[in-house]
């Protein structure tokens, strides 16, 4: 059982307090409606992504949410990996017992060669160890290579729940279903498993704010229908993710639906999204008209008019990932160097544009950006 405690969490615009003896809903206070810090794959700028240590680091560094990307094992268990092809994020290619599992597959129209989670049972995946995905930019993270297992969704929920038991602080969960149409075709559909797992634990069922996100559309509509029918996860909401404007959701491609993400980003498209989602997660390019970020598009205003929250991705602290006008150095030999001042300025430009939260690889910088932004208000 969870300790009896008074704790507060901002449910992205609604401030709710949990107290065994008091009404759980209080009036929202404007000064508390600050942008949410979402630990993108944990604190992946500082630890190998999608490991329990990365999620714990994100929690310790002030994240409001931790974000696991979910894929399926051969036996239908949801595990956290950025992609189902895992040669770049684990040591699988070095293990002789799995050499014969190497495959070439078409995933959402892209040919990939490597090792895929759906070809391994959970017990086999637990024999693997995580590695840094982009060592050319995050060499310091390689010191943690081959130390940590691939975590299950259950283990991530348990991590957040134990933190809540210990501190009384609620950390939200922000899972993404990766390649849902592909996994459906493998008879490994993730949606029901996801809801069943979340509803199994008191923390994720009754306490924590939950955002379920996807780049596809059909599975979000299915999740909404199931949540409306069964009310199985008390604080669950849905987020439509946006890839590049010219791209199409993978389920649209499978259905020969010509609509692109650009179509979903128009004022009417956002109204349509609001019929099944509570928010949108756009790639950063949707927010500003120019690279120098001096003029916004209408995306945020249109989304807010449709009662959608806006959580753009991804804010990273290295020079390589920053806009040219915010880099600490344009010298390509310093692309991997951290530029904390530039990263904070970038996030604050998006705060000023009106976003409701940000996906960041470095939640400590995200928290610092929020706090210094708050001080100017």
From TrEMBL:
Gene3D superfamilies: Phosphatidylinositol (PI) phosphodiesterase (3.20.20.190). It catalyses: a sn-glycero-3-phosphodiester + H2O = an alcohol + sn-glycerol 3-phosphate + H(+). GO terms for molecular function: glycerophosphodiester phosphodiesterase activity. Keywords: Glycerol metabolism, Hydrolase, Signal. Its EC number is 3.1.4.46. Pfam families: GDPD (PF03009). The keyword Signal applies. This is glycerophosphodiester phosphodiesterase. One of its GO terms (biological process) is lipid metabolic process. InterPro entries: GP_PDE_dom, PLC-like_Pdiesterase_TIM-brl. Belongs to the glycerophosphoryl diester phosphodiesterase family. Residues 35-370 form the GP-PDE domain. GO terms for cellular component: periplasmic space.
